[in-house]
Amino acid sequence: MNDPGTDGTGSDFSASRDARTTELAARLRAVRERLDAAVAAAHRPAGAVELLVVTKFFPADDVRRLIGLGVRTFGESREPEAGRKIAEVRAGGEITPPPTFDMIGTVQTKKAGGVARWARAVHSVDRRKLAERLADAAQAALDAGDRDDPLGVLLQVSLDGDPHRGGLLEADLADVADAVAGSPALSLRGLMAIAPLAGERAHWMAELARIHADFTRSHPDATELSAGMSGDLEIAVAHGSTCVRVGTAILGERPLLSQ
Ligand SMILES: *Cc1c(COP(=O)(O)O)cnc(C)c1O
């Protein structure tokens, strides 16, 4: 599958592996092994959990290297840097199958237009106003031919009410879900959460699983659960995550200033 000669990227990185590519390949393999083991341990079918490789603060060259290694699903967290980087990746030559990029970080309302042009989905929708802006922006992007499909939306849940980490309280999910459901340019996919640092990870993940189960009773198509990062992907997979967002374990430590 990852035969460097047939990755379809036309990329130099696959022809002659530089040291960075070798490093990324080893880290990627280790994370895939962790993920496969976690899926098997949870008695879930192979492929039940998507690996979103988080490339925020790393250059377009690293994205191209990862594409050469077979990665097609990426996460980015800051606009307009993300939009620029993705344009640079795409300018490097046609990629088959094409990669997708999800927005996983806080979106300022005024940046909705940029995000709606490049994102497959936004994992971090945390207020009604943002859902409404994304609906308008996604419709404009569809009309302009900048995108072919509705913009996926995951509502970010706050597990402990900490405003710094962001997210909606459980009681506020339905109102924002209604705003998403009211737009043909948006598609409600599920929920997302970042586990609080304090307290038991397993406790928070179990709480998230319960919130998701309740939510899907009224929103049966919202089957996705985006949870788990470099440090806690096993616990998230054990509690039903369908998408883990992994940065550091694959790319390495981010520059300190950027955290
Ligand atoms: C940066 C980021 C990640 C990746 O975290 P790592 O610990 O580096 O794997 C996941 N989710 C969100 C929302 C992020 O901002």
UniProtKB/TrEMBL annotation:
The keyword Zinc-finger does not apply. The modification N6-(pyridoxal phosphate)lysine is found at residue 56. Keywords: Pyridoxal phosphate. Its cofactor is pyridoxal 5'-phosphate. The keyword Lipid metabolism does not apply. One of its GO terms (molecular function) is pyridoxal phosphate binding. Residues 28-255 form the Alanine racemase N-terminal domain. It holds the Pfam family Ala_racemase_N. Belongs to the pyridoxal phosphate-binding protein YggS/PROSC family. NCBIfam families: YggS family pyridoxal phosphate-dependent enzyme. Pyridoxal 5'-phosphate (PLP)-binding protein, which is involved in PLP homeostasis. This is Pyridoxal phosphate homeostasis protein. It comes from Gordonia bronchialis (strain ATCC 25592 / DSM 43247 / BCRC 13721 / JCM 3198 / KCTC 3076 / NBRC 16047 / NCTC 10667) (Rhodococcus bronchialis). The lineage of its organism: Bacteria, Bacillati, Actinomycetota, Actinomycetes, Mycobacteriales.
